[in-house]
Design goal:
The chain is 51% helix and 10% strand. Strands 1-2-3-4-5 form a five-stranded antiparallel beta sheet. It has 27 helices and 18 strands. The N and C termini lie far apart (90 Å).
Length: 598
């Protein structure tokens, strides 16, 4: 409902803003005002002023400011009505009564909260009862023990199509309320009313205030379709405007400065248990505009952590285009992609939280994702295709409604197109840079090949499009990916195999850069332990290399490395023979005539 300015002024007047802000910020009196270090940006000397007299706060460093309502919106992620209700309650201000119809509707909702909470407790009890053995075994197989189940209030809906209804009616809940709460299907075609969920693992869904409003449920039968279902739309729950774990994640996200969006319930649970408390998930659907704005009220640049398969890339593409019309200064999205076949649950289980941190820190900005979506794996060897790329990029910019943001996107895309296709550059030399190896360690500096997605890399891929399309190049690419995974999972190889690694001819710019950095580390006397190497790459801003070549450790890294080296040398030899043949043909075609005509 709308609140009059008189009511809002009364709440402001009764709210001790200094005490409210002081719950989060250490304030010191200077004259008539209170000062502290700003909670919205890092600073060493206080520039953040709070005044009860003016009923406002203001940071003279970053410019953030507002009243008591704005404070709760910015620090707790509350909506404006939620902040009004909370401060009115604390200040003892009675909010105006609604119409009789509004009041009746609100009372109905309050009773439904009680119904859904009663169902949540029933499901929790059933999980630890004899009937829940199969559900407990499933959770145990996913690495979740009893403590984890209690932390997330997981439950089990027993089979039989009537267990929950029976339990609720015994607590004097009417059938109408059970149906209105989305917990039962109404009677139809002569069939009695039956439970909406049965024989499923239950995931309670809460609203922004932590009240259970709905459930997600995973079937235990292997052939059940659909595998996951949610409560239908009710007066308490709309799956397009709420997020799983949001009530818990909100405070952690504000503290962390970002929020992680995973794809499902189990992914969120895995992330939270690994230390990423600021993790949420959509509720079985693609990200919606309402969910996007909910995320932005909490953090300016949410990270969308998607699986690296086709479905994950499609979901990222859809989210990117959803965000375009709503972009504004300081608010965007970032994208982290897991290796193919991995999700956050399996990736953390196999690689640990540190690897997940590396992956999240290497998340792509929205602009880079859009550029890569339009360019990766595509051939721009003709003027028409390059013109088509420019047209597609102009269409992307056209969806951005904020003029300033659109202008920066336009400039950025124009620069990328210019660097890739319009700048005059010398013809790349095929000569391999000279490398020196002394004492088993790498020495000498050379400029590494460009990173994938950079202007130089795209230009190189355009010039070499014929080679990329060949089967031989595909085999070489696969073998270089294998070598990259070996180096990431067992970087100590760069110490014992420095000479072989240094003189190897590589076509993959990312692998060349990885090789270059590892050999420099080896030359510096570093031990090249995996954890230390990961930390080094993250500090250097090169965590994306670790993400790209992440994989499973080899049983015998040394033997696998030597096989990969041998295979690559053979493929490189074939490439050299082909190059020599082309050079010989070119030389013959350019030989002067013998006087018998032209």
């Amino acid at each position: 409902m709308r609140y009059g300015e008189g009511l809002l002024a009364e709440i402001r007047q009764r709210t001790d803003l200094v005490a409210l802000v002081g719950r989060r910020v250490k304030l010191v009196r200077k004259g008539r005002e209170m000062w502290g270090c700003c909670p919205f940006h890092q600073e060493k000397s206080p520039s953040f002023k709070v005044s009860n007299e003016r009923q406002s706060y203001k940071c003279f460093g970053c410019g953030k400011g507002g009243d008591c309502f704005k404070w709760l919106i910015e620090t707790e992620g509350l909506s404006f009505p939620e902040s009004v209700e909370k401060l009115a309650s604390e200040a003892g201000v009675e909010l105006p009564k609604w119409s009789p119809e509004d009041e009746e509707r609100e009372q109905k909702k309050k009773s439904l909260y009680d119904v859904v909470e009663l169902a949540a407790k029933f499901y929790e009890t059933q999980l630890f009862d004899n009937a829940g053995r199969e559900a407990r075994d499933y959770l145990k197989g996913r690495g979740l023990d009893g403590a984890a189940a209690k932390q997330f209030r997981l439950g089990y809906s027993p089979g039989g199509n009537g267990a929950l209804i029976k339990h609720l009616t015994e607590h004097n809940i009417t059938q109408d309320d059970i149906i209105a709460a989305g917990l039962a299907r109404p009677a139809d075609d002569g069939r009695p009313m039956r439970d909406f969920f049965y024989n499923r693992v239950m995931f309670p869904i809460t609203d922004g205030r932590g009240r259970v409003v709905a459930f997600g449920a995973r079937a235990l039968e292997a052939d059940a379709k659909p595998k996951y279902i949610n409560t239908g739309e009710t007066s308490l729950f709309s799956k397009g405007s709420q997020l799983y774990n949001f009530a818990t994640a909100r405070a952690a996200a504000i503290k962390a400065g970002t929020i992680i969006v995973a794809e499902g319930y189990m992914d969120v649970i895995a992330l939270v248990r690994a230390g990423f408390a600021h993790s949420v998930a959509p509720l079985g659907t693609a990200l919606t505009e309402d969910q996007l704005h909910l995320l932005w009220r909490t953090a300016p640049e949410p990270i969308l952590a998607f699986d690296g398969d086709a479905a994950g890339l499609k979901a990222a593409h859809r989210a990117a285009h959803l965000a375009l019309p709503h972009l504004k200064a300081g608010y965007s999205l970032r994208f982290a992609f897991l290796p193919t076949g991995e999700d956050p649950d399996s990736y953390i289980a196999g690689n640990g939280p540190g690897a997940m941190t590396v992956l999240l820190e290497a998340a792509l900005p929205l602009s880079q994702l859009l550029w890569r979506t339009e360019t990766d794996g595509k051939d721009f060897s003709t003027p028409e295709r390059r013109a088509g790329l420019e047209h597609a990029l102009r269409e992307i910019v056209g969806h951005i409604t904020d003029g300033k943001v659109a202008d920066y996107y336009r400039r950025g895309f124009d620069e990328l197109v210019f660097n890739n296709f319009k700048r005059r550059t010398p013809t790349p030399s095929v000569r391999t840079p000279q490398r020196q190896v002394q004492g088993g360690r790498y020495r000498g500096d050379f400029k590494p090949r460009p990173m994938p997605g950079s202007p130089e890399a795209v230009s190189a891929s355009v010039q070499g499009s014929a080679l990329v399309r060949s089967g031989q190049a595909g085999a070489r690419q696969a073998k270089e990916m294998e070598l990259g995974r070996l180096l990431v999972e067992s970087p100590e190889i760069a110490l014992s195999e420095a000479e072989s690694l240094a003189i190897l001819d590589l076509s993959d710019p990312s692998l060349d850069r990885l090789r270059h950095e590892l050999l420099n580390l080896a030359a510096s006397g570093s031990s090249l332990e995996k954890a230390g190497v990961q930390a080094h790459f993250t500090r250097k801003g090169m965590a994306e290399l670790l993400v790209r070549f992440a994989g499973s450790p080899a049983e015998d890294p040394q033997a696998s490395f030597q096989r990969a080296i041998a295979d690559l040398r053979e493929l490189a030899g074939q490439k050299t023979d082909a190059r020599r043949l082309l050079e010989r043909r070119k030389a013959l075609s350019e030989r002067p005539g013998d006087g018998r005509g032209t």
